[in-house]
Amino acid sequence: MKKVERFLVMLAFIGIIARLLLASGSSLTIVMSLMGLTFLYMYFGFALFNDIRLRDVLKKESYRGIATMRLAGAVLAGLALSMACVGILFKIQSWPGAVFNLGISMALCLTILAVCFTKIKGKYRQYYKRITTRLTIAVMFCALLLAIPRKNYLEFMQRDNPAFIKAEEALWNDPSNKELEKKVYEEQRNMNHH
């Protein structure tokens, strides 16, 4: 499972770099890799943090010696990381709800980090280290994305499409205007066909 996680993280990193360079196909790479990480953390975070191999997830003996609270903590950490991946995806793709998702996931990650830091010196040091490392990276990335103003991000990511930038900014100022929505849609289609 760790290999899958590393592969998806590297793929997301490559996709983000490609997106910054305005390479075609980068959006698909980003969506697939970050959604893959979202599902990995959401459904297998408990196994990843408790060092249970994928083939052993359904074996009862894999859970011997793992306290219920440790499993619950791993599930919550997986939930927080999956929400962070969704927030990162929404921000990079400029989808609505990015700030909300980033904010909620950061709050949850920071809460879990606070608990982990109080327990990291104890008996389950490796368990907490696995969680704190991932949560710290997620919090830093979410904070970075939250710090970038929407207008600056739009201007940088769409630097080759000034008509789209103008239409999008007009829609931000008058979000209920149907004509502006159509104009943004037209400009989006124009840039996708070039």
Can you give a write-up of this model?
This protein has 194 residues and is mainly α. It folds into two domains: 2-148, no CATH class; 150-194, no CATH class. 76% of the residues lie in helices and 0% in strands. It is built from eight helices and no strands. It has helices spanning 2-20, 26-49, 68-92, 98-119, 125-147, 150-157, 162-173, 178-192.
Search tags:
mainly alpha, elongated
Radius of gyration: 20 Å
| Total count of helical runs of at least 4 residues | 8
Helix proportion: over 70%
Largest beta-sheet characterization = none
Unreliably modeled segments: none
Shape: elongated
Q: Determine the N-to-C terminus distance.
A: 39 Å
- The fraction of residues in strands falls at under 5%
**Computed structural class:** mainly alpha
Overall mean confidence score, pLDDT: 91
Give the topology string: H per helix, E per strand: HHHHHHHH
The domain count comes to 2
Secondary structure: number of strands: 0
Write the layout of secondary structure elements.
Blueprint: H1 2-20, H2 26-49, H3 68-92, H4 98-119, H5 125-147, H6 150-157, H7 162-173, H8 178-192
Helix pairs in contact: 1-2, 2-3, 3-4, 3-5, 4-5, 7-8
Summarize the entry for a quick read.
The chain is built from 8 helices and no strands. The chain is mainly alpha-helical.
